Amino acid sequence: MNKVLGLLVLIFLSTSGWAQEDIDFTYEFNRDDSNPNIVNVTAEIINNSSEDIYFLSESCNGLDYYLTTTSDSTEILILIHCNATFPRKIELKANSSYEFKTIIKLNGDIKEVGMNLNLVKLNGSSEVEGKFINEIRKANTGSTLILEGPIKKMK
Questions:
Q1: Among 32, 85, 101, 155, fewest CB within 10 Å belongs to which?
Q2: So what's the pLDDT on residue 3?
Q3: For residue 65, what is the DSSP state?
Q4: Average of pLDDT values for 37-59?
């Protein structure tokens, strides 16, 4: 009986929203020609599912505030500091990708590093206009995914 119950729970989790999402996160690093401690990043969120997904971004700095690195000696470099930023709802169609750019600052001799993205998923019917970003993030805590990107060598 316990094995059957365990199997049913496993089947439920694999078909529910709690299961591993069909969303990948990857990126490419390119060192800046004028400053070797600056790395230009082209990142991509890939929706491998058959359904559209929606996620939170910001009008100022896009997804920069949702990124982290795997090294304490690196940081996401935010060059624009806005007095105000507004929530943006991004639609990512099924079997498509969303590309964005960011910058990493290296604070030392870093051989390899990875990046993670805290993706705040939204419902298709979610309205973000006129709301505060923190309010939206808090309301969608249960649907926030941590997408771990690959560890990549610095060139």
A1: 155
A2: 52
A3: G
A4: 96
Structure tokens at 127: 């309205």
Residue 105 above 60 pLDDT?
yes
Task: Please say whether the dihedral angle defined by the alpha carbons of residues 137, 140, 146 and 149, taken in this order, is positive or negative.
Answer: negative
**Rounded to a whole number, what is the largest CA-CA distance in the chain?**
66
Do the Cβ atoms of 12 and 68 come closer than 8 Å?
no
The 8-class DSSP code of residue 70 comes to S
Would the pLDDT of 92 be above 60?
yes
For domain 21-153, which CATH number applies: 2.60.40, 1.20.1070, 1.20.120, 1.25.10? 2.60.40
Neighbours of 8 (CB within 10 A): 10
Residue 81 pLDDT grade (very low, low, confident, very high; cuts 50, 70, 90): confident
Give, as one character, the DSSP assignment of residue 64: G
Contact criterion met (CB below 8 Å) for 102 and 76 = yes
